Amino acid sequence: MRIGIFGGSFNPVHNGHIHLAKAAAEEFKLDKVYLVPSRISPHRSSDEYVSGLDRLEMLRLAAADDPLLEVSDFELCADRVSYSIYTVEHFRSAHPEDELFLLVGSDMLLSFDSWFRFEDILDEVTLCVVSRNDGDMKLLKKKADELGQYGEVLISESAPVVVSSTEIRKKIAKNKNFACYLDENVVQYIRSKGLYSYRGEAKLLFDPDEKKKFLKARLSAKRYVHSLNVAAECRKLAIKYGEDPDKAYFAGLLHDICKELPDDEQKALVLKSSFTVCREELETRSLWHAIAGAYFIKTEFGVEDIDILNAVRFHTVGRAGMSRLEEIVYLGDLISADRDYKDVDRMRKLSYSSLNAAMLEAFAFSIKSVVKKGGLVPVCTAEGYNFYTRLQIEEKNKVSAKRGLK
Ligand code: ATP
Fold first, then answer.
1. Rounded to an integer, what distance in angstroms lies between the CA atom of residue 194 and that of residue 164?
2. Domains in the chain, start-ordered, CATH in brackets?
3. What are the φ/ψ torsions at residue 186 (nearest 5 degrees)?
4. pLDDT tens digits, residue range 110-153?
5. How many CB atoms lie within 10 A of CB 110?
6. How far is the CA of 242 from the centre of ligand 1 (A)?
7. Which of 47, 144, 322, 376 could form a disulfide with 326 if both were Cys (CB 3.0 to 4.6 A apart)?
8. How far is the CA of 10 from the centre of ligand 1 (A)?
């Protein structure tokens, strides 16, 4: 077997670490990579350095999907801060017949000859190096040549993923978005345990002023005004129908957050999301932004409220059995103050008199306009239309039954 050993503080584990482990495993044909979090001196500041158990747990979450990756608590269980040579010796005695590979990032290669007993390390393992920065290949090869007298050093050809734990910790402490650098489950872990002085996003989550700044910088003036109008309309509808007005405002405000992203970026977010997307949606460019938007606010803003996510995700296509909030955002988008299509006033009146009737009218309107343009009707839209039609039929049957009784 070819066994990789990958040590680090992993404080927290990030995409650069996982990239290193996977790239080395693939390129150097490793059968297993052990991720070994190091002990950190307990005297270090606790805001910056979280407990070994937390780092171990985050590693387990990040490695969970890949059978090649395994997490070892060897160094954490040691009774003092460990040197890499001791870890290598531990793996050597556990795997006497196997080939060992020590994985490091390029910064570690450059200082490798200052490591405690580095010659002994190179005697036992092949050193595998993955670059952390563009353009450092020449320097790495030179260093690898120098160390060549002590043992084998391999340099990966893979392109770097430029990120560091320090940078992520700073972002978390400053309330900046950090989700894109980490595994989704690690992000949830940090948020739920409030690690690295995490406090911000929860506060910012429903802070519309913060989100407005974000949208203003990201959307055209027209789309920004539309988003504000939809948010205001959603709040009014929420008050009318007993929904949470702040939640409705928030969902309305963000419903088009990805509308002006380039097509390929929208598509990439759609494909990355784990949402169920029907074929017609995948084939219709103008529908991607809703799915992309829900995924974006989930991963970038940490929105976990499924109702808000669905309200954004289904605001274009709708579906059968929409929640009250989903209906509100769907209709809010259709009747906001900046809308001026022919029947908008009728639609406005209907929206404030009966949600079900307005939804049926909205679905019929949407299907008609798709058909007129020769487009595809998404299955969920057709199902939504049927759902609200059945409600109407049931309603009519009830009324006639009542009349019959009289
Ligand atoms: P910090 O910023 O806290 O120093 P770090 O991001 O450098 O952390 P460590 O846990 O200290 O991460 O690093 C563990 C190992 O992972 C080291 O060998 C390091 O070179 C490597 N490594 C870290 N980040 C990357 C990256 N983006 N690409 C490749 N290797 C990386």
1. 20
2. 2-179 (3.40.50.620), 198-404 (1.10.3210.10)
3. -70, -40
4. 999 999 999 999 999 999 999 998 888 999 999 999 999 999 99
5. 16
6. 50
7. 322
8. 7
For ligand 1, say whether the CB of 166 is within 6 Å of any of its atoms.
yes
CA distance 184 to 299: 7
CA 6 to CA 8: how far, in whole Å? 7
Ligand 1 binding pocket includes 21 (Cβ within 6 Å): no
Ligand 1 centre to CA of 167 (Å) is 11
CA of 8 to the centre of ligand 1 (A): 7
| Residue 110 identity | L
DSSP string of 193-252?
Answer: HTGGG--HHHHHHT-HHHHHHHHHHHS-HHHHHHHHHHHHHHHHHHHHHT--HHHHHHHH
Question: How many Å apart are CA 38 and CA 19, to the nearest integer?
Answer: 19
- In the chain, pLDDT over 70 holds for what percent of residues? 96
Which amino acid is it at 293?
G
pTM confidence score: 0.57
Cβ atoms of 15 and 182 closer than 8 Å: yes
Whether 211 and 250 have beta carbons less than 8 Å apart is answered as: yes
Instruction: Give the H or E element holding residue 153.
Output: strand 153-155
Instruction: For residue range 273-290, list pLDDT tens digits in order.
Output: 989 999 999 999 999 999
Q: What is the DSSP string of 324-361?
A: HHHHHHHHHHHH-TT---TTHHHHHHHHHH-HHHHHHH
